[in-house]
Amino acid sequence: MELVFNAEATMLRDTMSRFIEREYSFQARKRRLVLPDGFCRDTWKSLAELGALAAALPVEAGGLGAGAMGTLIISEACGRGLIVEPYLATVVLGGGLLELAATSVHRPLLERLTEGSCLLAFAHSEPESESDFGGITTRAMETRAGFSLSGRKNAVIHGATADMLIVSACVGGAAADSTRLSLFLVDRRDSALQLRGYRTIDGLQAADIAFDGVTVPRAALLGEPGEARPVIDHVLARANAALCAEATGAMQSLLERTVAYLRTRQQFGQPLARFQALQHRMADMAMHVELARSMAYLVALQVDGVDATARERVVSAAKARVCIAASFVGKQAIQLHGGIGMTDALDVSHYFRRLTAITRTLGDEAFHLDRFAAATP
Amino acid sequence: MLLELAPDDRAFRDEVRAFLRERLDPSLAKRVREHGRVSAAELVQWQKTLYRQGWFAPAWPTEWGGAAWPALRQYIFDEEYHAAAAPPVIAFGRDLLGPVLMKFGSDAQRQHYLPRILASDDWWCQGYSEPGAGSDLASLRTTAELRGDHYLINGQKTWTTLAQHANMMFCLVRTRSDGKKQEGISFILIDMATPGITVRPITLLDGEPEVNEVWFEDVVVPVANRIGDEGRGWTYAKHLLGHERTGIAGIGIAKREIDYLKELAASVRRHGRPLLEDREFRSRVARVEIELMALEMTNLRLLAAPPGSGPGWEVSMLKVRGTEILQEISELQLEVAGCSGLEVDAPGAARTRGAASARYLNLRKLSIFGGSNEIQRNIIAQQIVGG
Question: What pLDDT was estimated at residue A82?
Fold first, then answer.
């Protein structure tokens, strides 16, 4: 039972805090948002140099071995700084799939990822199966040279700016067993893709991608055919753990900003922070943040260490609780700021938008409550 | 337990389990679990059993006969204790007076009272609240007038829990009425058999006389019964606040109550199937279970952290959320019991169908006592807002 950060974890946390303070002011973030990619590739390189992209990976895969606690620390910093670079998409999702599924053929890709020279996105969810992650209908037909992919993927995070997409599909025709998934590496610049990129409310971006007989070579198959489901489930669990940590970071920032604002904003001749109704609201926000943080820790401690059933249970408990907290803290932060909280000019509304997006990503509160209940005797 | 225990902690847990299996009367445990009545004599007998095992005071130092377990061990003990449905200890002497005596009492006081607390030879009640001093406790008005070698006490305490069984009271009294109101308060020990004391039970909404009014009319108490200095009682009483870290959240009790809730909900039907399988109901149970996980993890983080490293308001959070969770569970249990749960069991008789409603009614107290949840939110807000 390790509930206190060890020396390495503390160092990583301090490194990330300094990075956010130095490089990621709200104004600096705004400048990144208007770049052609919607984020800054130099920043991505800096994160690589800091070791953030390699931190969580096992040492034998070229990482620093910080594991899920490393992901937690970095994600929490991403939440505090509202980082727009593709940490979740490339490192947690893409890197996780490579780490758990790749054979020696694709190992070099992991190295390029940690150097910051290859961006990945995971094309998994589909229009009909957004929240249950099952029912994948994208098909991969075997051809003489490799595979032909057909199907539609939607809300692929960073799908339009990644270098490579990892696409989930079932091998075979319409009658293929949809529980037997395979993963394929597809060049995002492949002209056969029908890709529509768009901004999401949190300033990040996603893409809807249609595959209409997109051919890929046999070497594009990542791992064993038909065996990807456990890997996908594990990586989605890690991604939800990362989202819990990111939300905690964002909530902590919102709480601090709200407290600071209420201390200075004068109405009726005194600071708003003197009013008990508002004090109690802040107390409730603070409790939500702490409880959410506890769940982010709990899931980080267990996401790689317990069997699949226990893992899904704790992930769902954590995500459901974090969604409740994110919704409460986000809405109250705007409410307590009043009109100024509604503006695009203030970071409060940007935190709120990111938190809202997190509550809709990889399963919402209702989905996770259901899944938790089903997994709990 | 939420997290895996180290092997020596597991061995400790097994030892606690074995003890409870051997020494806790199953029929008593069943009554505790099902919210039945437990008599004062049964409680004292059980507390003496714990005492003989050396486990009555897990947090006390060994020099005073405590177990001096580290926080995690106390937590494990608590969890096993409540999972086995052992009756909750009447903890006023052990948890509230004991630490004050150890820190501020005279040698004579410590040597006389601490062993008696440990052996449950005295039943202590807490004389703090007054009709005009609830959340604003420092406004208390019961006076203690110095008359040579004794004080003359006049006034009234209220909400005094189980004072009808107590032979001793630790009490906050006013020894000076000028100056800052906190500075005129003294901490004094009173023998309940002293002439001039009247105890009047207050019947609460569940029909039980759990609390009392206690009247003092020219009650003579030796000066030797005062703890520490005159006028410092407020400081002594406050010494305790914020130190209780293991038990205040009530995690162990809440876990048992959720198990019991599920057992009840599996045995009644809604829309032709067990209520527990009703999606809407199950979802509400899931919410409480998740709240409890979050609170337990918060509690464990707090126990693992070096003292003083947290935000400073953790204990208030444990109290607020712990009590809210227990109240939510009792509400769900009431729902399961349905209208047959409304039956009022005869006073003193065994509890039957009315247990759920009696419990629900009784647990309203949780968010009021021990510093109301509003006061706790004030404390949290003051800490995060500062100055």
Answer: 97
